[in-house]
Amino acid sequence: MRIFDPHIHMTSRTTDDYRQMAEAGVRAVVEPAFWLGQPRTNPGSFTDYFDSLIGWEPFRAAQFGIRHHATIALNPKEANDPRCRPVLDLLPRYLAKDGVVAVGEIGYDSMTPAEDEVFAAQLALALDHELPAMVHTPHRDKARGTQRSLDVVKESGIDPGRVLLDHLNEVTIGMARDAGVWTGFSIYPDTKMSPGRMVAILREYGPERVLVNSAADWGKSDPLLTLRTAEAMLAGGFDKDDVDRVLWRNPVEFYSQSGRLDLSDAPDPDVTFAGNSILRGGS
Amino acid sequence: MTTLDELRTFLPAEDFQPADVPALFPAAGRRYGREPLTEGWTADEAARALMLAAVPPSEIQDIYRYGDTAEKLAVLKALPLLPIGDEGVPLLEDALRTNDTRLVAAALGPYADRLGRQAWRQAVLKCVFMGVPLHLVHRLSERADPELGAMLRAFALERQAAGRDMPPDALALLDSLSPQEA
Predict the structure, then answer these.
(1) What φ, ψ does residue A105 adopt, rounded to 5°?
(2) pTM of the full predicted structure?
(3) Does residue A10 sit within a domain?
(4) CB contact (8 A) between residue B68 and residue A93
(5) Which of A207, A212, B25, B104 is most buried per CB count within 10 Å?
(6) Does residue A280 sit within a domain?
(7) B128 to chain A, minimum CA–CA distance in Å?
(8) CA A109/CA A15 separation, integer angstroms
(9) Given this model, what pLDDT does residue B113 score?
């Protein structure tokens, strides 16, 4: 089984996670730029973070045979801090990179006027850079936040087929499908979605334009819940082709719209120098 | 060593304007491809070297600062071809602080002749530690000195105490630096 995790914050994960993911069949990941546990207070903190997403983290992933791409954006929560706003001016540099396959995560956290402004500005950046957009839906007041996100997407003029609306659930999938966007589901141990509920959604709506991710980060999360969802699909009567579609072909199709998704040489752990320091434990 | 003029013969149509370089540089792989162009150079590396030749040194620092790994590697590779004196040395020092084996190896090309002796010895030892093959270090046998030998010997003792092997290329270097018994 081959797995593409289209949303996972590897910066927060250990090399042991990478090892287990590789063993579970994860061959490719997309790491969206988002907030960290600790709020940032200046643009330099963001550029160092973005550098890691296009530099260090792909190198780390490659040690385990996993291809790593990123999405870059100013996230909605930190968009509310005026000290972080100049990050918007730095984004074009990063949106030009080979490894950047979408603008994201953008969208809403608390649905403030500042978030409105930054969301719209970044959808415009996606259009300018001919990149898809990856939209986070809020945890609080989710249904209204999802509808408002879809309204902003529509207003921006971006093709809904180039938009992924993420962290959806039973309540919000309907409006997302009606709008014609790709639908993302984050499978979590306690919150968001579970493998069983995901299988029920797939039964009701089918596998078209459905992406399943672990969204694993610094909180209580599990990078192997993509695999667990695949197993639940098979146990629930879906065949291997359905699993491959949801866990590989759909994310490949969505992010390929960037023209930059490169899975041609999904890195071999032996390509870099033998006995490198990561596998050994750091230099 | 390849020169900028030689690279120009392989990309004859390209005469980069300084104003275009910031936008073109990150897109070089998509625009020129990543296939081998001439000995030791891929098309994107060659195009990037010619772009760097078109801009002032301060811009080179900026391109490196905001570069992804492929861009940083291209800058490091181009440094010895560029008329910038010692201004690129801080970029080598930046690359040598990373834990990316590709950047560390790229920092030890011909431009590393401008790196101070102590920094260079530390870099060579870091290669041994990270498993970067020593044949990638430019002028290794000429620059290796007794002090590097002493550092390698100490490292070999640590490895021995831990029951771990030294890489064969590091052992060979250590042998070459050890006083020969009469």
Answers:
(1) -80, 125
(2) 0.91
(3) yes
(4) no
(5) A212
(6) no
(7) 10
(8) 30
(9) 97
